[in-house]
Design goal:
- The protein starts with 6 loop residues before the first helix and ends with a strand.
- The chain has helices spanning 7-13, 52-59; strands at residues 21-25, 32-37, 47-50, 68-71, 76-79, 81-84, 92-94, 96-97, 108-113, 118-123, 145-148, 152-159, 162-173, 182-184, 193-198, 204-206.
- It is built from 2 helices and 16 strands.
- The chain has 2 domains: 7-79, no CATH class; 92-206, Immunoglobulin-like (Sandwich), CATH 2.60.40.
- It has 209 residues and is mostly beta strands.
- A hairpin with a 6-residue loop joins strand 1 (21-25) and strand 2.
Length: 209
């Protein structure tokens, strides 16, 4: 006799296999290329497992995939802030000296060593630069950042308060300042000088805060 199965009861009792998720990434940059069920990427060699909640947030667009990258050393997914470094404006700003600064900390620190004729540019440790912040800002909550936009920075070194008298111009990129300082040698300047730039960061300072 043919067995009769209650179809609704069958559906209620059926157990579907748990879906596992992965993030496929570029092994050179750590950039996440795709996120989805693991069975869809069986032929991809560079991938890491993801928890269901994170994977679904990325798939639904609640976390932008271009904010995600893989820390290759730890084989973990990191979600970064995307910081645009396009020029804030096209106005030429004078980099303020420490004694005139109206802010407690800067994003970019510039120091000049007259005895060595070197000019050093540093990004704050908050953005994975080398400039250590004052004790009152410790511990520093370092922000995971993916830099986007035009990262070229130009610093015009001029006569004091006079951008029309240019001594020299130096060019660098944000990438030059991540985990390292940029030192320019053979920069001979008078006792008083100014530095001007078109800002891609909010606060610059000449000297230490």
């Amino acid at each position: 006799m043919e067995e009769i199965i209650d179809f609704e009861e069958f559906l209620r009792n059926i157990k579907l296999p748990e879906v596992s998720y992965v993030a496929v990434f570029d092994p050179e940059t750590g950039e996440v290329k795709s996120v989805g069920p693991s069975h869809a990427f069986e032929n991809k060699p560079y991938k890491i497992p993801l928890d269901k909640e994170t994977a679904e947030l990325i798939i639904e667009g609640k976390i932008r995939i271009n904010s995600c990258f893989v820390d290759i050393t730890g084989n973990t997914l990191e979600i970064a802030e995307i910081k645009s470094v396009f020029k804030i404006d096209d106005v030429l700003h004078r980099v303020v000296e420490t004694k005139w600064a109206e802010f407690d900390k800067a994003d970019i620190y510039i120091t000049y060593d007259k005895s060595q004729n070197t000019l050093t540019v540093e990004l704050t440790e908050e953005f994975h630069g080398t400039k250590k912040l004052a004790e009152k800002f410790q511990p520093v909550n370092k922000r995971k950042v993916i830099w986007s936009g035009d990262t070229t920075m130009k610093l015009l070194i001029t006569d004091y308060n006079d951008p029309n008298v240019l001594y020299t111009m130096i060019t660098l990129t944000v990438a030059d300042l991540v985990e390292q300082k940029k030192i320019f040698e053979n920069i001979e300047l008078p006792e008083r000088f100014s530095i001007y730039t078109r800002r891609i960061f909010k606060n610059y300072v000449l000297g230490d805060l």
